Amino acid sequence: MTEPTPAKKRKAAPATSAIASPWASAPDREQQREAKRHAVLSTAAQLFNEKGFHATSLDDIAARLNVTKPTLYYYVKNKDQILIECVRQGLEMTIEGIEASRAAGGKAIDQLMACMQVYAHIVTQPFGMCLIRVGDEELPPDSRKELRRLKSGIDQAFRRLVAAGVEEGSLQPCDPKMTAFVIAGALSWIGRWYQSGGEYTPEQIAQQCITTLCEGVLRRADVPAVARAAPAETAPVAPARKPRAAKK
């Protein structure tokens, strides 16, 4: 009896490499969309700062991004929403920076100085500058109310730090509310006049403004030794100084 002929082995099909999909994965698509949306907002903030909100159109934003106007509607609804998001970004950046400075700890004066540095730096950035230059009066009532609530958080943070500085003795006695208004108002105004590429860097501007706020502009004359040594009730009153004659 003959043995059965063994079945012929089939040749294995040659391995083929997987074709790379031209479509990105869901996480990648979302990341790309967020990056493009951020580019829309950043570009809009720059144009709002340069031309003003009303003078800037969606066509202007699209042209600077080298896209068509309909493309913008994939990322934003309208120009009002762009402004809301730009101002919100500026506020959130400020609040996050201030909270991080406070969380770092240290004396109240150190935290206050760090918060002032953060605030002065952010108002030289597109979103922070948009927050200052455009303001919230251009926004719909509901958004205006929300953004003013966020602004109040910045004001309260400065008030708390000023009050703590007075308590620890690093600041002169003052009204924390008024002092916080002065600090925030002075630093905010940087966002009005700052121009990139100017004589000073944002860091230099922040340092000079903070130094002026903390040390003032008056030159403090030394008190004469005699006046320091005399009792308060008998201390002589120094006569007014006569102006020096101009040299011929």
From TrEMBL:
DNA-binding region: 57-76
Pfam families according to UniProt: TetR_C_24 (PF17932), TetR_N (PF00440)
Organism superkingdom: Bacteria
Keywords for the protein's UniProt record, in alphabetical order: DNA-binding, Repressor, Transcription, Transcription regulation
UniProt key word Transcription: yes
GO molecular function: DNA-binding transcription factor activity; transcription cis-regulatory region binding
Low complexity compositional bias, start-end: 229-240
Region listing for Disordered, in residue ranges: 1-34, 229-248
Residue stretches making up the HTH tetR-type domain: 34-94
Gene3D superfamilies linked: Homeodomain-like (1.10.10.60), Tetracycline Repressor, domain 2 (1.10.357.10)
Alphabetized PANTHER family for the sequence: HTH-TYPE TRANSCRIPTIONAL REGULATOR RUTR (PTHR30055), HTH-TYPE TRANSCRIPTIONAL REPRESSOR KSTR2 (PTHR30055:SF175)
Protein name: TetR family transcriptional regulator
Source organism per UniProt: Simplicispira metamorpha
Lineage of origin: Bacteria, Pseudomonadati, Pseudomonadota, Betaproteobacteria, Burkholderiales
